[in-house]
Amino acid sequence: xxxxxTKFGGSSLADSGQFKxxxxxxxxxxxxxxxxxSAPGKRFKEDTKVTDLLYRCHAQAAKxxxxxxxxxxxxxxxxxxxxxxxxxxxxxxxxxEINGRIAGGASRDYCASRGEYLNGLLLADYLGWRFMDAAKxxxxxxxxxxxxxxxxxxxxxxLADGVPTVVPGFYGAMPDGSIRTFSRGGSDITGAxxxxxxxxxxxxxxxxxxxxxxxxPRIVENPREISAITYAELRELSYMGASVLHEDAMxxxxxxxxxxxxxxxxNPQHPGTLISLEIPCDRNVPIITGVAGHKGFxxxxxxxxxxxxxxxxxxxxxxxxxxxxxxxxxxxxxIDSLCVVVHQDELAPHREEVVRRIADLTQPDKLLIHDNMSxxxxxxxxxxxxxxxxxxxxxxxxxAGINVRMIDQGSSELSIIVGVDDDxxxxxxxxxxxxxxx
Length: 438
Fold this sequence. Notes:
This protein is an alpha/beta fold and 438 residues long. It has helices at 16-27, 50-62, 68-85, 91-103, 108-127, 148-159, 187-197, 231-239, 250-256, 313-323, 344-347, 351-362, 389-399, 425-436; strands at 4-8, 32-37, 130-131, 165-166, 171-173, 179-181, 202-207, 212-213, 225-226, 228-230, 260-264, 273-276, 290-303, 328-330, 337-343, 366-379, 406-409, 415-421.
């Protein structure tokens, strides 16, 4: 029988009305037998997410402050849902236990995880489905890293009976049984983990948008929707911030070739965006799949004659960054020059020491740091088979009066990355989008 895993985000389960939409969606296809819920999100613009309330409770308790008013706010959210849906779960007892644990010094991860835990209990009750505590089936090792193989073996065995099941997202357990969470948005990861364990035919990620857009709508007016994208393209765009899906959620399903579909809970008839291993190029769609970027980078520029023949030169530069805990994003180079792109905020506290150490280790002819650079990625599987893509991109930037500070293209030819001044960030994205999409 076909199997579909569905993950519903916080906005999809923010109140009782959204719970009803979720039940209707599940009823449309009997293959939807596994659900991963997030904690309730915002009901309106000024609202506060339940997870944020839980973090606040922990912070207040840790400082010895009274957290009860905050806790009562989040408790009321759940009580309202349970009452409006006529649920039977003993929510009061659950809330009392959590309240007591927070007062007793419960960890930050435990506090945050209770949002998904409680929402999972409510949803399982509402659907009449089995509830499976993620702490029993999602495991982290002694170092706090996710143990994918142990998780897959245990979860696969427990879900093999095909019983419709709710598995709350975002958290799991350490070897000693204590709660450990993924990073924010980690319910996406749990959904992908469940999809891998049950060998799902598809993993549906339901949220409040109808899939991905080719550009940020705050920069490009009414950008085109992306109907299909490969995992490789998504990885490139997600890294640059253009994602409604936690980037780590791609790996469990990518590993076993399960397609992911981004869907809109408030518009379930919309087909959304399909993410899969391979998608053929379509002459009816733009050459590029999307364009996205980030501001706030610094470029460390090192120049030295005959650098290319000096063994270990690049390693020494990168060793300095590693010593200060600074990761690099890109490293374009020439025969006598090397540039390392880093996050400006990471470099700032160590700036003078980094310059001094690099100078001591490499004895450069010139060493400069250029700040306020944006990095923009133009991504598309169609670029590989289309001559002149780079020429069109740089011509569009030239016509817009934008100076290119850095160019970096990977060997896969899946993306072209450019560096521009922060002041040119939005104009660059618009120029590239309009060139290829119009």
